[in-house]
Amino acid sequence: MTNNSKFNNQVAIVTGAGQGIGFEIAQQLAIHGALVVLNDADAELAQAAAAKISGAGAACIAVAGDASDVTFIKELVATAVEKFGRVTLAVANAGLSLYGNFFDFPEADFDRVMKVNLGGSFFLAQAVANQMIRQKSGGSILFLSSVTGHRAMKELAAYSTTKAGLEMLAKNLVIELSPYQITINTIAPGATLTERTLTFDDYKNGWSAMTPMGRPAAVADIANAALFLLSPASRHITGQNLIVDGGWSTISPIPPNAK
To answer: What pLDDT was estimated at residue 5?
Structure first.
């Protein structure tokens, strides 16, 4: 493990971290000294991800489960406290993106997107904040939003609504959490190369052509921003949103057949 230990003695929960952005955030936190509780709905994926991080000499355990289920969220926080003594950092990364025509978007899909993206983040923040208050330790909470919370994209009405909602939720929670020295911020990634997006047709080339910086984000680009907002260097930053999109949202062209 690296000697860079700016997160020593910190205990972090990261949801939806079996792969992609969530995994990279969990991995970087662990490399930099944090004790990490890695969550994913897929038990095999969670175990493999935690094993990869632990195998590199960092501290990480897997806790599989549905990060939109309030009972499980409470169990997740309790497990972190049981294993590592406390919780000081939380990243609500678990999310679901469902494309669909607004005119016949199914109610069940709408409810599921709202429950995972908004509900899961809301109740993770609630459970973690209550634990931090009991500890009298302060802490940092981070939501993963999206550029779609700022720019309209076809067939993403429900998803983009949840992402814009997360940013407003973070602003509102400044009032609730600041007296306890808990910061709350969001990151809005743009097009990002992950295991999932690389399965889309011509994703990398399409978004490279439409992004001022000439490429989509790598997961490390998002993780670097996340670590800053979770670190002591940002202790006076709260209620803010950081867009990480290579400049795309300033001009907002959309590749054909974009996903």
So the answer is: 79
